[in-house]
Amino acid sequence: MQFGIFSVSDVTTDPTTGRTPTEAERIQAMVRIALKAEEVGLDVFATGEHHNPPFVASSPTTMLGYIAAQTKDLVLSTSTTLITTNDPVKIAEDFAMLQHLAGGRVDVMMGRGNTGPVYPWFGQDIRQGIPLAIENYALLRRLWREDVVDWEGKFRTPLQSFTATPRPLDGVAPFVWHGSIRSPEIAEQAAYYGDGFFHNNIFWPAEHTKRMVRLYRQRYEHYGHGKADQAIVGLGGQVFMRKNSQDAVREFRPYFDNAPVYGGGPSLEDFSQATPLTVGSPQQVIDRTLSFRENVGDYQRQLFLMDHAGLPLKTVLEQLDILGEEVVPVLREEFAKLKPAHVPDAPTHQSLLAAKQQDERKQEVAK
């Protein structure tokens, strides 16, 4: 099982000091956080994609390429790549380039984002969000898997004898996760292609997450990719930890109360009860995270949101120390004990390449 962190890249005032970091400070902080993630033994760093204040992650592949040059093992991912408003040709080429630079340590999470105005900013209609996601991804898959593509669709100009460059590393496309909070059509899309499904459940009750993942698993089996419990599932989560739970709650409360997304809404206690947010001791985080399996079954990737709501970099790095030293080792051991042998691990470039080579050998034997 893979454990990691994802960032939404918000630039938020620290409510305890009144200080707002500059964009430059926030971008450099995200890089430092990614390097810390590898240092403490996490598997994945993922960044979102936004094109509006107060967010700074407008060019994920630029940031991930910079981080790739300073890391050795960390899987570099997006937590949202806007499949609706990005040109599939540009996505295909950007991520293939990133693959080469990172030695294959790359995957992609497709999503539609949570900012409605982004559609007209990039010349699209929000009312076509689902059709755009379906058509653009169908083209993207072909661009990665076919050397020469002829294509015509509804939302962009046709392609004639087009070759995206560079070609994917080792002829293996990056593994794709389809991220969705509320859209069954996206769970269906992930199942149809046999891709991963990531439910970023940080704002949603467990019952909703359970329904969405169940739908994906059922349709994954329907399309013949394997049994339902072999489908590739990822979850989001939010944590804030201190040795004593009372200290964690006391320290995190002002950040929660003033956060741009959920500040002024339900209380910290009510929100923690209704969603995966866990504010407390490391053991409480371990127990809560292990309980996710009860709703979604055995899953392959757990990403935590930790650098948001104005938390200072020093505090985030402290949180990563706790996560890497006290929480993740226990989670790895406990999840490994529970996982049946037939349930696969999260795909990596190495595992996808091995599968490709095995298929090629079978084809040679069949000849």
Automatic annotation (TrEMBL):
One of its GO terms (molecular function) is oxidoreductase activity, acting on paired donors, with incorporation or reduction of molecular oxygen. The keyword Oxidoreductase applies. Keywords: Monooxygenase, Oxidoreductase. Gene3D superfamilies: Luciferase-like domain (3.20.20.30). Residues 1-294 form the Luciferase-like domain. Residues 357-367 have a biased composition (Basic and acidic residues). It holds the Pfam family Bac_luciferase. GO terms for cellular component: cytosol. The keyword Oxidoreductase applies. Residues 341-367 are annotated as: Disordered. This is LLM class flavin-dependent oxidoreductase.
